[in-house]
């Protein structure tokens, strides 16, 4: 998972104008059944933003960071539109007023979307927002790729498994990561396999970089070694680019070395 700067962007003005019209219709609807009917009638509307939303992640799922092994892309409502379930399945009124709010949309692969469904538990003791209320009072259990802090809580290991990042010590943060891994099917077999492949490739490139760097510092007249370590560094940085599939796995690989020379490469991506 990498941070998606959704809230600093804005979709086409015509789309936004139509969304505002639909929101006005929702507000005027007499009851929940009428609102649900209106949302269902316009269920293809948010799909019109799929191409734009995918451009923000370079064509990758916002949760898994996969391009093809997590199947077709869905425009998902982060806060469910018609009903919202607690962790135990208890249902609450959905966030119908966010049905046509582009800031509530996320891109997710069709493998993870069905398991996520309408689950949206909050931290115990946290009140759900009322219609048009302040969402900042909510503390969702599900990680949000558009929150600058959330992606760093999730990491990966050499087996390609999604894990809690090593720096995370807070019990609530740990629970959020573990829940998100489960809810969004981030342990999907082909996805784990591809992460493992990316990790191994990155590890090989990192070792080449370290070897050439050691050769150069052992003899700083060795200009060939200097060029080779720079070439190796460029190959590592290539895997860290935000448009690269599973770049967060490559970042986790670099962190795992504990080598400050290697971790310094992260500063350029």
What does this structure look like?
- The chain is mainly alpha-helical and 269 residues long.
- It has 2 domains: 1-122, no CATH class; 152-269, no CATH class.
- The protein contains 9 helices and 6 strands; from the N terminus they run H-H-H-E-E-E-E-H-E-E-H-H-H-H-H.
- The strands form 3 sheets. Strands 1-4 form a two-stranded antiparallel ribbon. Strands 2-3 form a two-stranded antiparallel sheet.
- The chain is elongated and about 80 Å long.
- The model has no long low-confidence stretch (mean pLDDT 92).
SSE inventory with pairings:
Elements: H1 13-28, H2 32-41, H3 50-55, E1 73-77, E2 83-85, E3 91-93, E4 105-109, H4 112-116, E5 154-156, E6 162-164, H5 171-183, H6 189-218, H7 223-240, H8 247-257, H9 260-263
Antiparallel strand pairs: 1-4, 2-3, 5-6
Helix pairs in contact: 1-2, 6-7, 6-8
């Amino acid at each position: 998972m990498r941070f998606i700067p959704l809230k600093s962007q804005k979709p086409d003005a015509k789309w936004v104008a139509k969304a505002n019209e639909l929101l006005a219709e929702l507000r005027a609807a007499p009851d929940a059944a009428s609102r649900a009917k209106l949302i269902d009638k316009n269920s293809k509307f948010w799909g019109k933003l799929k191409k734009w939303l995918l451009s923000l992640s370079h064509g990758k799922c916002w949760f898994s960071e996969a391009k093809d092994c997590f199947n077709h892309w869905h425009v998902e409502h982060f806060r469910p539109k018609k009903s919202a379930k607690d962790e135990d399945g208890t249902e609450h009124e959905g966030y119908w007023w966010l049905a046509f709010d582009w800031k509530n949309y996320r891109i997710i692969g069709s493998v993870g979307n069905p398991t996520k469904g309408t689950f949206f538990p909050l931290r115990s003791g946290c009140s759900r927002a009322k219609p048009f209320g302040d969402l900042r009072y909510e503390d969702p259990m599900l990680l949000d790729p558009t929150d600058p802090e959330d992606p760093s809580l999730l990491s990966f290991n050499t087996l390609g498994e999604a894990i809690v990042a090593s720096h995370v010590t807070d019990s609530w943060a740990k629970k959020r990561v573990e829940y998100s891994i489960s809810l969004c099917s981030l342990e999907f077999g082909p996805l784990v396999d591809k992460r493992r492949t990316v990790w191994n490739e990155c590890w090989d490139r990192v070792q080449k970089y370290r070897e050439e760097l050691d050769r150069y510092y052992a003899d700083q007249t060795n200009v060939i070694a200097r060029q080779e370590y720079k070439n190796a560094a460029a190959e590592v940085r290539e895997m860290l680019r935000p448009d690269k599939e599973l770049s967060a796995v490559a970042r986790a690989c670099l962190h795992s070395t504990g080598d400050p020379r290697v971790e310094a490469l992260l500063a350029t991506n």
